[in-house]
Design brief:
The structure is a homodimer. By secondary structure, chain A is an alpha/beta fold. Helix content of chain A is about 35%, strand content about 20%. In chain A, the strands form 3 sheets. A 5-stranded mixed β-sheet of chain A has the order 3-2-1-4-7, with helices on both faces.
């Protein structure tokens, strides 16, 4: 049987028909929030999915602030829908198919486990380095949801008390440093020093542009990657003490910078890892193709043992 | 059927015959490391346990640096036995009973789940505040051991990079601040300021003495508790983002200081907790009587679903 994987993003929602082996047979996308009414979204989704409904057993949804237990999207800051939206229930009622929902990083972790590099792993952590930093923690072959349903929010670990202002209202959260927006902030701060020379001065900054500058040898850009890797490597070394993963996968925009981000992260990870965990844990890139990962991850959600 | 619970400590090893309902029917203790030969210990243990072997189905052992998967005690710094000691195997061979072993904090978590305040909980964290800081993390009703068997080493989270020297060789680990020895170090540092007034000046410092001074209103002692609670509360708020527990239990010597440690810990925990987790998690004292906890915890190890 096939499944439908749906990835609800701030701007657009991607969906795909996924075979049991993890092939996306057909896919498409619709705008997410045309109106503030989630029911309107569900109607448009139903129309869009109609041609894909071939031998489908269930639907999996990844969404920001998605709660696995309730199937709700709760207070997602980047969506027009306000408050608590019972999305899994709305989709299930409309499409008459079993529907599960979780947050996007948990969905990516499921995708890695079912279709990616974590196929044989029981304990690993998935880190998504996008606009923010998301994480999905797998223990004993199952994604950890915890008591609240919101476990695995490593982007919200305070790594520097009194540090950078985070969108959550607190200061010094990991994602204010280690993410696409985090590295942009790091470069902006460095450029405030008038004597710092960089090809990035006066540019519209983005993680992609900083990566390009670093690859061309721009020292300020290289230092920004080193700093990002220092903060991330330390945080990952601390993370290991909680669930002792076999592997930590890095995924998303910033992970595509390859050795620029992996090398400093690995160095500071190893330097800060407790002896007892040395040689028990690897840091690797995700095997999921980025364009398909969200759909595959959401589809994989249905495959979790319950 | 009864079980035997064994708590291997640096100086002495406690053991008890535990009923299914969690009553210690009989108990005793022997010195741990009389010689450097663990086989000698096992022989003495067998002799000591002989009168307790009534309707016994299995043996559970809590030990420093105990690995649940291998049953080994690995490089325990406070024991005379060096290297890797296959303790579960040695005991099983000698006493001809199924034997499981884990570290002491994991055993305490099991004890809390089977006999204590976590009876109805599926997700919680046990923090033991003794000489060091130990932790046992329970997810979905099972203690997390992770890939290495050493998951739940929260005392080894680096909370202040470049901070206090830890026995592990690194700097700034949580247990160098939040433990019985941590608060002693905090007071010693404060006393280095010549103008600081305190009844503790010139005393042989201990957590118990600092507690007594704080209860009598000694400002330096009270500040030490405030600081300890700040470090611990922050670390616990970060911990919640990983596994989203329903409760964090504090156990051990320092936890007995009651409101002196619970109040600042709770305050800084709440101040640093991400909104999404507010009102989902409590900090409570353990329900296990300290004198019996280690034996009950070790006995409870046998009851874990495998």
């Amino acid at each position: 049987m096939n499944t439908i994987g749906i990835d609800i993003g701030g701007t657009s929602t991607k969906y795909g028909l996924v075979s049991e082996s993890g092939t996306i047979i057909e896919q498409g996308s619709i705008p997410t929030c045309v109106t503030e009414d989630p029911q309107d979204f569900v109607e448009r989704l139903k129309t869009a999915l109609n041609p894909l409904m071939k031998n489908v057993s269930a639907i999996g949804i990844g969404a920001p602030n998605g709660n696995y237990y309730s199937g709700n999207i709760e207070h997602a800051p980047n969506l027009k829908w306000k408050g608590i939206v019972p999305m899994a229930e709305l989709v299930e009622q409309s499409l008459k198919l079993k529907t599960r929902l979780t947050n996007d990083a948990n969905a990516a972790a499921m995708g890695e486990m079912i279709f990616g590099n974590a196929k044989s792993m029981k304990n690993f952590i998935m880190i998504t380095l996008g606009t923010g930093l998301g994480s999905g923690i797998v223990v004993d072959g199952k994604v950890v949801y915890g008591h609240s349903g919101f476990a695995g929010e490593m982007g919200q670990v305070i790594v520097i008390p009194g540090g950078r202002q985070c969108g959550c209202g607190r200061l010094g959260c990991l994602e204010t440093y280690a993410s696409a927006t985090g590295i942009v902030r790091t470069v902006k701060l460095a450029l405030e020093t008038p004597e710092s020379k960089s090809s990035l001065r006066g540019q519209e900054l983005s993680a992609a542009l900083i990566t390009k500058a670093a690859l061309e040898g721009d020292e300020l850009a290289l230092n920004a990657f080193e700093f990002t890797g220092e903060i991330l490597g330390r945080a990952l070394a601390n993370a290991v003490t909680f669930t002792s993963p076999e592997c930590i996968f890095l995924f998303g925009g910033l992970a595509k910078a390859g050795p620029l981000i992996f090398e400093p992260t690995q160095k500071h990870f190893s330097n800060n890892l407790h002896n007892i965990f040395q040689n028990t844990v690897k840091i690797l890139p995700s095997a999921l193709p980025e364009s398909d990962a969200a759909i595959l991850g959401a589809a994989a959600l249905i495959k979790e043992p319950s």
